[in-house]
Design goal:
By secondary structure, the chain is an alpha+beta fold. It contains 8 helices and 8 strands; from the N terminus they run H-E-E-H-E-E-E-E-H-H-E-H-H-E-H-H.
């Protein structure tokens, strides 16, 4: 289901790592990962995961991430964690305004996993990468509205891949990133609220009293800064 894919995207499409029991990385991505309930403390291929029967035979996973308890919706009805392997990660690109992971999701009763490319980024970049028929009519208006309310808004899209396509991308490197990140199906929006600190109003008031002109400099879109 799209809901399950959305949660898997939140749990895998990031650059967060676990170090000495703590999540390290962008705080936006850390909060997203925590909200999804995924566990990224499982060992990587380099740390001996190659003997794990649940990922044996997959194209060299960059990471293996544990899903929330009772993850279902993709043909898995078990009550425990599902090990989702990230077999390729395209890091966030500032020119593209997005990042992409290719994940292998185990399917109960089937030997082969489900391969999915999941892309996360600015909602404008995701909208331009998705099949227009998959984008809800209110997508951009909702994104801009949440940004005006002070939220950091991201979009997410995906598409299914065949084992041959994964082999071409991951093993043979015959398929480029641009091909992976086009004709996606829109999954939805992620909104993280930027809360003001308790003393922000007082601090700004003192600056104003001192005839200091305050200017907002933000890496977010203009609506969020406004």
């Amino acid at each position: 289901s799209d809901g399950a894919l959305f949660v898997i995207g939140m749990g895998t499409c990031h650059a967060v790592a676990s170090f000495q029991g703590h999540l390290v990385g962008s705080q936006v991505e850390v909060k997203m990962l925590e909200a999804a309930g995924f566990d990224c403390s499982l060992p990587t291929r380099e740390k001996g995961i190659s003997e794990d029967p649940e990922v044996a035979g997959l194209p060299e996973p960059a990471a293996v991430i544990g899903s929330p308890e009772g993850m279902c919706g993709l043909g898995h009805q078990g009550g425990g964690r599902v090990k989702v392997a990230v077999v390729r990660r395209f890091e966030f690109d500032h020119a593209r305004h997005k990042m992409t992971v290719i994940v292998a999701v185990p399917r109960e009763g089937r030997k082969s996993p489900l391969y999915v490319a999941i892309t996360k980024g600015s909602y404008e970049a995701i909208a331009s990468s998705c099949d227009p028929l998959s984008i809800p009519e209110e997508f951009l208006d909702r994104a801009k509205g949440m940004a005006l309310e002070g939220c950091y808004v991201l979009g997410m899209g995906c598409k299914f891949l065949t084992p041959a396509e994964v082999d071409s991308i991951v093993v043979k490197a015959e398929t480029d990133r641009d091909s992976v990140e086009k004709n996606l199906r829109c999954l939805g929006l992620i909104a993280l609220r930027n809360e003001l600190k308790d003393d922000s109003a007082e601090a700004l008031g003192k600056l104003k009293e001192g005839a200091v002109r305050s200017v907002i400099i933000t890496g977010d879109n203009a609506q969020c800064g406004q």
